[in-house]
Amino acid sequence: MPTKSNNASNTDTITNDQPQSHPYLGMWVTGDGRIRQELLPTGRYDEARGTRRSAYQGRYRVTGTHIDYWDDTGFTADGTFVDSDTLHHGGMIFYREKS
Question: What is the distance in angstroms between the CA of the first residue and the CA of the last residue of the chain?
Answer without folding.
Answer: 36
